[in-house]
Design goal:
Blueprint (H helix, E strand, L loop, with lengths): L1 H12 L26 E10 L4 E12 L2 E8 L3 E5 L8 H15 L2 H4 L3 E4 L11 E7 L2 H4 L2 E8 L3 E8 L4 E8 L2 H9 L2
Antiparallel strand pairs: 1-2, 1-9, 2-3, 3-4, 5-6, 6-7, 7-8, 8-9
Helix pairs in contact: 1-2
């Protein structure tokens, strides 16, 4: 179960198929929505595993602490991972993908554009309260596994839809949460 959880988390962090390129032009960082920094949120995650014809569902929350992101799964298992570059127990794949997740949560489009072509599939209809962005990997090695990430939200990222080359998908829905409450939950053994 721990291996499945780590795989699911790695997949979530690997966050990106493709609408025709003619429909969505690359966006400059200045054209992308300003997003408030998410210090914490509750999440629901659905991972569709195409080869097993099944969907795994989980819930939990994340909380920023110092230079780390605490990723707490509460259902179906209770498990906590400290996502930080200095965590010696964190698998290398997760360390590599950590900047992608934090870039998405922070709305740091410039950092994301170092690794992804950021497209605005419906830019003419986007507003600060309702926007969409599609991230397509620039690196061929990443593109062999990851097709795209679709992000949507308003003041914050609210939904991430990750599509993998093997037809697996992850949908991550984020909802605002009271950080003090989550901190207290995190401190409880």
């Amino acid at each position: 179960m721990l291996l499945i959880r780590h795989a699911a988390l790695a997949v979530a962090l690997t966050l990106v198929a493709a609408a025709p390129a003619a429909q969505a032009e690359d966006a400059s960082a200045a054209e992308l929505p300003a997003i408030e920094l998410s210090q914490c949120a509750r999440f629901t995650q659905e991972r569709e595993m195409a080869d097993l014809d099944t969907t795994l569902k989980s819930t939990g929350y994340f909380l920023r602490r110092d230079d780390a992101l605490i990723w707490q799964t509460t259902r179906p298992v209770d498990d906590r991972v400290r996502l930080a570059a200095d965590n010696p127990d964190l698998p290398r794949a997760l360390k590599v993908m950590l900047p992608v997740l934090t870039g998405l949560l922070d709305g740091n489009w410039e950092a994301l554009q170092e690794h992804f072509a950021v497209k605005r599939p419906d830019a003419e209809r986007d507003t600060p309260d309702a926007w969409q962005a599609r991230l397509v990997p620039l690196d061929d090695a990443v593109a062999e596994r990851l097709e795209r990430i679709d992000a949507a939200g308003g003041e914050r990222v609210e939904t991430l839809k990750i599509r993998f080359a093997n037809a697996d998908r992850i949908t991550l829905r984020l909802t605002p949460a009271d950080c003090a409450t989550l901190a207290a939950e995190t401190e409880t053994p």
